[in-house]
């Protein structure tokens, strides 16, 4: 049963946030009146520099933080009123690494299958499928401690996939990876999405990835959404407004909507640019 106003026969939105607001102890609003709706089957990117409020917003959606103000629904289920119902529908891969290096890849995924109540008879098959989906079949019986950074990220993806979520939430899934590993992570995400029709909500501060893989993106800065549309429409829009024949990137759009604030206090954003240049050299 859903409890929103979805017309009969129509799939409710995978995620709806209305006026979501969250403040930590110091009173500053980490998330400040967030409104967004993610359609079922969409790959949606929540973008912004460090400190924008992406992780906080996502932790409210996943029920790890309460929703003190506003409303969040996952496939029509109110996150505040039906936490268990929401948890059954989604998988969350946090930013901090969560795989156990002293277990094999297969053991790590099996652990998640047990925790998420995958029926015992289906477990071995579903674990093997999840490992296959992320390209880890051959490495499945090696200790996760021997994996590269990209393989660990794909292992975490397999852990999230083994419960067959309808909404997969990934917080900075490619942070710190080299360009080849980043592409590999994304290709596995896109392949699983195509095969299962699941919805993907991803945060990233890599604008180039968002431009390439996300159906729509929300540009977030200081707890608020500054722009929301397809990457294409956002960049086209800025090109028209500029009218100087240049081809702006999503990063240019971000600078345009966030204003000069980014350059003054956006040390983190400049660091990201530096990381990207370094990564490009390494690649
Ligand atoms: N546990 C916490 N206690 C206090 N402030 C926090 C905490 N976590 C995050 N913040 C603050 O909330 C804001 C948003 O942080 P976060 O949601 O982590 O942003 P992002 O994921 O976009 O980098 C930042 O100003 C950050 O310093
Ligand atoms: Mg974060």
Label this structure with key terms.
binds magnesium ion, nucleotide-binding, ATP binding, alpha/beta, six-stranded mixed beta sheet, ABC_transporter-like_ATP-bd, four-stranded antiparallel beta sheet, binds adenosine-5'-diphosphate, 283 residues, disordered C terminus, 11 helices, Rossmann fold, 10 strands, globular
What does this structure look like?
The chain has a six-stranded mixed beta sheet with strand order 6-7-8-3-9-10, sandwiched between helices. It has a four-stranded antiparallel beta sheet with strand order 2-1-4-5, with helices on one face. It has 283 residues and is α/β, with parallel strands linked by helices. The protein is built from eleven helices and ten strands. The protein is globular and about 55 Å long. The N and C termini lie far apart (49 Å). The longest helix is centred in the middle third of the chain and has 18 residues, at 179-196. The protein has one domain (15-282): P-loop containing nucleotide triphosphate hydrolases (Rossmann fold), CATH 3.40.50.300. β7 (167-171), α6 and β8 form a beta-alpha-beta unit. α3 packs across α4 and α5 runs parallel beside α6. It has helices spanning 54-61, 83-89, 105-115, 120-133, 149-161, 179-196, 207-213, 231-242, 250-258, 261-265, 267-282; strands spanning 15-23, 29-38, 43-47, 69-74, 77-78, 90-93, 167-171, 199-204, 216-221, 224-229. The chain binds adenosine-5'-diphosphate and magnesium ion (MG).
